[in-house]
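Feature request, filed as a ticket because there's no other form

It would be nice if the structure record came with a short human-readable summary line next to the tokens. Right now we just get the raw output. Example of a typical job, pasted below so the devs can see what we mean:
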Amino acid sequence: MEDNLHDAVIAANRFGLGARPDELEDIAHDPREWVLAQLEQPAALIDSLQALDSSPDYLSRFAEYRDQRRRSRQRQQQGKDSDPPTFSERFRDDVLTEMQLRGVQQCATDSPVHERLVMLWSNHFTVSGESPRVRLLAGAFEREAIRPHIYDDFSTLLLSAEQHPAMLLYLDNVASIGPESRVGSARNRRAEQGKGKGAGINENLAREIMELHTLSVHGDYQQQDVIELARALTGWRTSLHTRRPDEVLELSPWGSIFQQITHEPGDRELLGETFDQQGPAQGRHMLRFLAEQPATARFVATKLARHYVADAPPEALVEDLAKSFIRHKGQLLAVYRDLFTHELAWRAESRKFRRPDEYLIALHRALGRLPSEEGHRWRAEMHLLGQPPSLPRTPEGWGDTADDWVGTDALWKRLLIAQGYAQQLDSPPDPMVLAQGSLGPQLRQATARAMDQVNPRQATAILLASPEFQWR
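Raw output as currently delivered:
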């Protein structure tokens, strides 16, 4: 039973999002089965998150807002009073509500193993809300492009993410116009006459697909491969970029379109393979081709092993997962099963430092409480901890190693958070019971002694700020 309790802690903290009160003993009956069962029957989204607007709704409202701003500027140029709402005034509540309810979902879920996978893939296919349009879509991106596909084959997940309007906006593909396309040719002729700027291909999305989403920086590809993929993805835009819906094809049900008049015609060559498909099929075939490459298998395997097991994961584990990816033709569910049953994934000495979001979720689950569905506290606390929701610094997403998060200031802020929650408890539980419920046998004697010398609220704060609670 003692061994099972050790494995239960690993199951709850390494593969899940932290144990809830009295949960470890249940998990200890069969920790591995507790993990695997959640892959078969994940819990549904909370109703309030599911009821939020979809991307087409947000895009439609943003288009109305954009038109209103344009009319307002025209009125101002005519010397008339006009005071249109700012983006924040119009959409701030939408953005913050998405953040708050996502936090509630993560703390409330009955299938934390599933929820951690959602978080992992959302971070892999990062979109950052630095621009207003992406900020509005970031939450919907996870609900629409990531959640439904984390158990599909990798190419399906890849296509879902790359075709979503949030990704097309974030990585500037909406500004990419083929020079030989109808629109590009006309623009370039005018530019030659000194009238405006010419059209060109934007490589951002293609580059990040190859570098961050599939092959990795170690993939054996050249700049010409990036250009060829970028050419294939021209015309992949959003409903904000056309007023002629009869001239476009649907790229996804979430408000992205394929616009032939901006697409670069011709065959493409990628990694020595020729793609002669027409229209959006060409880019899709190239993405599926990238998803099947051995370098992609290796990259995904490394990402999984690093996220779950160790900052420097065992090479044997990475190798086995890469082979699993290839053997199962990128079927992610099979790869997860091989990861969650691998001997190297259950070693007690492997530890990961919790990211701020993981820490805040684990704290709520340990205390058996949920964030309020109202208000903006989740966003404020994440910001304090150094991980403002939907605002990763780069397309690479949030860092996934201890070096990205360990620091004196960061640890001090976690202590402040721990003290705050301990003080707010209506009736503080027995701290030692709380410790056994969240850490089990991982509770250190030094922490237990420190807890034993103070009052229950202070002891709770010590537990939540302790080193063993910071690591999973």
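Something like this underneath would help us a lot:
The CA atoms of residues 3 and 464 lie 24 Å apart.
The two ends are 21 Å apart (CA to CA).
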